[in-house]
Design goal:
With 265 residues, this protein is mainly alpha-helical. Helix content is 85%, strand content 0%.
């Protein structure tokens, strides 16, 4: 049985259980869709909770049991992907599935202490806070650096404005948010860094755009010409006479034209 057949079988089994559970939980007196949904959810828990408690062991609360189920699924997926890369097991799907189930069960069944589960959940909570907090800043970054790419003054003003906003949010909402308020000064600090490194960021973005559009041959040629340019600049700064500097300057001007020709798409 290949992986697609196994996955299809698993999904079909779960859907069958869902449908049977819905039919058994539904009653003729339930006419409100909200109540029907609640009835379905309660029936779902009644069907699956004893099953997961059997394979995952005792758990202090239902929420922690749900977390252990998610850990089990996460570990199973990762372990299966890793084992599938090993030639000894990749040729036999059932062996890969059996090892993945065994290892993931052994890893989660004995998490009986609430403290251990909370410790595991903490990094995921921090990840969720960081992503949701800094996603607006990421969107704002692309707006400033790309939409305002032609005006350095507007970009700098935009970063100052953003830093002031984040500092204002930190001051006004510190007591309301509490420990999570660290997000605002951190975002304000990043805005100040972007303000100070505006030129560097723009050069990096332009460089990335050139690299993305250039063919491999042109990109290699560009690297060679830039290395030559660095050598000529050093030679110009170390030239002892004006005549030598003029001669090197001519070479630099010609090299600039060649670089411009290579980077012209």
């Amino acid at each position: 049985m290949n992986k697609r057949v196994f996955a299809l079988f698993s999904i079909s089994l779960l859907l069958s259980i869902f449908i049977l559970n819905l039919v058994s939980a539904a009653t003729p007196t339930v006419s409100d869709p909200i109540e029907a949904l609640k009835s379905f959810g309660n029936g779902f828990l009644q069907v699956f909770q004893p099953f997961f408690e059997t394979i995952l062991g005792t758990t202090p609360s239902g929420q922690l049991l749900f977390a252990k189920v998610l850990f089990l699924l996460l570990l199973f997926s990762i372990i299966w992907v890793v084992i599938d890369q090993i030639p000894l097991f990749s040729s036999n799907t059932w062996v890969s599935v059996l090892i993945s189930i065994t290892v993931s069960l052994l890893s989660t069944r004995f998490l009986t202490e609430a403290g251990w589960v909370q410790t595991i959940l903490l990094p995921y909570s921090a990840l969720g806070i960081a992503i949701t907090a800094f996603l607006p800043l990421l969107i704002y970054f692309y707006f400033v650096e790309y939409a305002l790419s032609k005006s350095r003054i507007l970009r700098k003003a935009a970063w100052i404005f953003a830093a002031v906003i984040f500092i204002g949010l930190w001051i006004t909402r510190y007591e309301e948010i509490g420990a999570a308020a660290w997000v605002y000064p951190t975002a304000a600090g990043l805005c100040i860094i972007f303000f100070l490194m505006d030129g560097t960021i723009q050069r990096a973005l332009k460089r990335m755009n050139i690299e993305r559009q250039l063919s491999p041959i042109k990109y290699a040629e560009l690297g060679r010409l830039e290395n030559q340019m660095e050598g000529l600049v050093k030679a110009y700064s170390n030239a002892p006479t004006d005549a030598e500097r003029k001669s090197i300057q001519k070479l630099i001007d010609n090299l600039k034209k060649r670089i411009q020709h290579v980077t012209t798409i």
